Here is the input.
Amino acid sequence: MSGSTPTKYVKGGCSQSTPSPKCMKMIFTKMKDKFDTLRVEVNELMKRFLSLVDKKLLWQLSWMMNHSLLVMTFFVMLRKR
Here is the structure.
């Protein structure tokens, strides 16, 4: 060992300094799988939330959001003059 930095190995036996394309693909696939499961969970949570929240309340909320956005854009336009 004459001062050469040792290659660190990541889980799955990939070297960090120069990972092979095969290794990169494996890491990418793992990440993609995680993101897919996360997206499914978020969708399920949203469905549950929407089923719990009353439709009328939801409509009022969206109206309030749109209203506040209109007011904000109005003030921004006033400020720019």
User: Anything to note?
Assistant: The mean pLDDT is 77. Residues 9-80 form one domain.
